[in-house]
From TrEMBL:
InterPro entries: Acyl_transf_3_dom, Nod_factor_acetyltransferase. GO terms for molecular function: acyltransferase activity, transferring groups other than amino-acyl groups. It comes from the Bacteria. It comes from Streptomyces lydicus. Residues 67-367 form the Acyltransferase domain. This is Acyltransferase 3 domain-containing protein. Keywords: Membrane, Transmembrane, Transmembrane helix. Residues 41-52 have a biased composition (Basic residues). Residues 1-10 have a biased composition (Basic and acidic residues).
């Protein structure tokens, strides 16, 4: 069985330890250090004297956070915000459309792969189910209602319905994550999890009757990336972090941008959302299978290139990786508000310098929304403890007392 995840089991939801917000992420301990000593010798030295563990050096922690994944989450969430800022610019700028397509080809797959990677230890244990409820289900409900009320007010649509089964805008990811993580034990027991998940995604892409309930098209079409994350090990990330991989990533991304520039006026960008079947996009049914497989391969290559460029050292932005859920959910109000308020109708926004300023503004806003003050202000919604909602575990209580 995989070790307890050092991060929370997903890319966006903040890390916790024992129900409290964690300031550091746990790295799995080496097997030799984690193995307990035999009961007859544990805690005693020669002569029968009990040994006292040497104190850790000041300012250090026995379990430290992996800066690589925090950096990856922060940089990915910045790309999410920038992608949203480019969306209204695509019609008037082929360059903006090319950047938009390139980013959308890998930013959510990267998040989902990280989510799967840190879901490897998930099972139906009581404390993990509680964290799934408080860290995923409750924020989904709160923000689905909040976004609906915001749309009613900002878009002058007072009758827009509140529906927990039909997520609006960004909240689909939390619903999908809830479903994916519940299925984690199943993917651990099947023999070929990734091919099976990919087959399910292909079938979903040619099945328009699935409908919009629970956003199942996205749940199923993005599923292979989550299952890949479940199948990855630390050594797999080391492969893409080598110098050779970083060098190769440069021409690959350059080629992706060139191809996106060519494809921008010819391709429906809705393929990258994975929320519709091929028939719903006006394409023949067989193209759903072809596009799903082709985009799956392209996304994996670009995700690998993205990971290759992620620094593994602690940087100024590393601590912001713990606040990606905050940035993700909160920036949606500004992104949608800019559309409802017709901010993009201003001519200067569509000039080259305007596009640059919009991009920098989006990156700055998402950075601020990931900071600790914002986390403290919205922790009640993102990370509610809700101890009152769960039955006490007598076994766990007895274990903690001992």
């Amino acid at each position: 069985m995989p070790q307890e995840s050092p991060h929370r089991a997903d890319a966006l939801v903040p890390e916790r330890a024992g129900g409290a917000t964690a300031t550091t992420t746990r790295a799995p301990a080496p097997a030799a250090a984690a193995a307990p000593a035999p009961a007859s010798h544990r805690g005693r030295a020669k002569g029968g004297r009990r040994r006292t563990a040497a104190p850790a050096p000041a300012g250090t922690s026995a379990k430290s956070r992996d800066a690589f994944f925090d950096n990856a989450k922060y940089l990915a969430i910045v790309l999410v915000a920038m992608g949203h800022s480019w969306e209204p610019l695509r019609d008037g700028s082929r360059t903006a459309a090319a950047f938009y397509i390139t980013v959308y080809a890998f930013h959510m797959p990267a998040f989902i792969i990280i989510s799967g990677y840190f879901s490897r230890s998930f099972d139906m244990r009581k404390d993990r189910l509680q964290r799934l409820v408080t860290g995923v289900a409750v924020p989904y409900i709160l923000f689905e209602v909040a976004y609906t009320l915001f749309k009613r007010w900002a878009d002058d649509d007072p009758h827009y319905p509140i529906s927990l089964t039909d997520p609006w805008y960004l909240t689909w990811f939390l619903l999908a994550l809830f479903i994916w993580r519940l299925t984690t034990p199943l993917w651990k027991i099947v023999r070929w999890p990734v091919p099976l998940a990919l087959a399910i995604a292909v079938l979903a892409s040619v099945s328009p009757d699935i409908g919009d309930d629970l956003d199942l098209q996205r749940v199923l079409q993005f599923l292979p990336f989550f299952v890949i994350g479940l199948s990855l090990r630390p050594e797999h990330f080391k492969l893409v972090r080598r110098k050779k991989a970083r060098i190769l990533a440069v021409p690959v991304f350059a080629g992706a941008l060139v191809f996106a520039y060519w494809a921008a006026p010819r391709m429906n960008a809705a393929w990258f959302y994975h929320r519709d079947a091929a028939q719903e996009l006006g394409a023949p049914w067989w193209s759903g299978a072809v596009m799903t497989l082709a985009m799956f391969g392209c996304s994996l290559v670009l995700v690998a290139c993205f990971f290759a460029w992620i620094p593994g050292r602690t940087m100024w932005c590393t601590a912001l990786g713990a606040g990606t859920l905050y940035g993700y959910l909160l920036h949606g109000f500004l992104a949608k508000g800019s559309r409802f308020g017709n901010w993009y109708d201003t001519p200067w926004v569509h000039t080259p310098w305007g596009m640059v300023l919009i991009t920098l503004f989006a990156g700055t806003v998402i950075t601020v929304l990931c900071t600790p003050p914002v986390q403290r202000a919205f922790r009640w919604a993102m990370e509610p403890k809700m101890t009152w909602a769960f039955q006490k575990d007598p076994v766990g209580a007895a274990r903690s007392r001992n």
